[in-house]
């Protein structure tokens, strides 16, 4: 590369950085959407998901999705966590469809649809207030799989991940005290504006993500209960094969099984302070009781 080319490249990079910092996010996203709609115009003939793993974060969704991904009756997305119904819902339908195979490429199979099923997994969907309405508009017949873990353990695992990656610098106890103030009015803003993104809502929602009944009720406004499969995450940690077989039956696909059922990702070691655990057990008790009543079964969390 000669000197002129180097200067031209640096100038392009500088202009790109200036565009990113000066132009408001909504306008940047409109520009990106229009570019993607043109670039991905052939994706309009791609398939749409027949099932979603909608959550929850730190509950084993990666393991379950990786168990399903190689199944011969499943045509998986190009990647786990497309985030279309939460952070990228403003980028257009062709962007979403570009992650799935063309309808014509789906192989005939002995499934309820007579072909391979298409699916994706984004564990933030259950928590995002706008996700169920958007999902219903595009795929009203989709099956929905939700994994739920003891909310105390889930919250601590969530904090450990943030601390490990540098998103969180506060102690766990301080972080949960700050949570409400950090998140503020993000839920209403996310509902009102498809371009809005809340860093705090996404990353600092340690306790709020454990209010499962509230989130499920939001989804039940748009989907009937029979389209859901509710999984206690601890059951999958203890018996991955058994839960996987239940999922294949729920989806109506064959009983083919992968060779490996080890957990794909494990959290950082470390135990929660016993005093903090005791306080959180009491904090989550009414939320868990509401969940047990909604599901018609006691999940035994304490």
What does this structure look like?
The structure is a single chain. This protein has 302 residues and is α/β, with parallel strands linked by helices. The chain has two domains: 1-39; 44-295, Rossmann fold (3-Layer(aba) Sandwich). Helices cover 48% and strands 8% of the residues. The protein has 13 helices and five strands. Strands 2-3-1-4-5 form a five-stranded parallel beta sheet. 32% of the residues are buried. Residues 5-10 and 16-21 have low confidence and may be disordered.
CATH topology of the largest domain: Rossmann fold
Number of strands: 5
Q: Structural class from helices and strands?
A: alpha/beta
Question: In what order do the strands lie side by side in the largest sheet?
Answer: 2-3-1-4-5
- Compute the number of helices: 13
The backbone outline, from C-alpha atoms, is globular
Q: What's the number of domains? A: 2
Parts with pLDDT < 50 across at least 5 consecutive residues:
5-10, 16-21
Gyration radius (Cα, Å) is: 21 Å
Could you tell me the strand content as a percent range? Answer: 5-15%
Largest sheet: 5 strands, parallel
What is the residue-averaged pLDDT?
Answer: 88
CATH class of the largest domain: Alpha Beta
Instruction: Provide the CATH superfamily of the largest domain.
Output: P-loop containing nucleotide triphosphate hydrolases
Topology:
Elements: H1 3-22, H2 25-39, E1 51-55, H3 61-68, E2 74-76, H4 93-97, E3 117-121, H5 131-138, E4 143-148, H6 151-165, H7 172-183, H8 186-192, H9 199-203, H10 212-220, E5 228-232, H11 233-238, H12 240-251, H13 274-295
Parallel strand pairs: 1-3, 1-4, 2-3, 4-5
């Amino acid at each position: 590369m000669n000197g002129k080319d180097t200067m031209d490249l640096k100038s392009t990079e500088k202009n790109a950085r200036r565009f990113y910092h000066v132009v408001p996010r909504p306008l940047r996203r409109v520009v990106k959407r229009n570019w993607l709609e043109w670039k991905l115009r052939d994706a309009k003939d791609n398939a749409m998901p027949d099932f979603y793993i909608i959550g929850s974060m730190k509950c084993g969704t990666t393991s379950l999705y990786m168990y399903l991904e190689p199944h011969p009756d499943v045509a998986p997305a190009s990647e786990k966590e497309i985030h279309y119904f939460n952070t990228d819902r403003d980028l257009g339908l062709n962007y979403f469809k570009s992650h799935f195979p063309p309808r014509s490429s789906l192989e005939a199979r002995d499934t309820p649809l007579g072909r391979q099923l298409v699916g994706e997994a984004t564990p933030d969907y259950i928590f995002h207030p706008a996700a169920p309405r958007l999902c219903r508009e595009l795929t009203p017949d989709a099956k929905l799989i939700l994994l739920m873990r003891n909310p105390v353990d889930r919250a601590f695992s969530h904090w450990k991940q943030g601390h490990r990656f540098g998103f969180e610098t506060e102690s766990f106890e301080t972080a949960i005290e700050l949570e409400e103030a950090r998140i503020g009015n993000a839920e209403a803003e996310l509902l009102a504006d498809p371009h809005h993104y809340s860093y705090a809502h996404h990353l600092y929602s340690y306790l709020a993500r454990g209010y499962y009944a509230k989130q499920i009720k939001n989804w039940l406004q748009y989907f009937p209960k029979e389209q859901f499969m509710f999984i206690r995450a601890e059951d999958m940690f203890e018996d991955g094969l058994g839960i996987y077989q239940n999922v294949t039956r729920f989806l109506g696909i064959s009983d083919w099984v992968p060779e490996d059922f080890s957990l794909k990702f494990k959290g950082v070691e470390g135990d929660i302070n016993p005093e903090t655990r005791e306080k959180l057990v009491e904090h989550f008790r009414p939320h868990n009781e509401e969940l047990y009543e909604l599901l018609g079964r006691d999940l035994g969390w304490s």
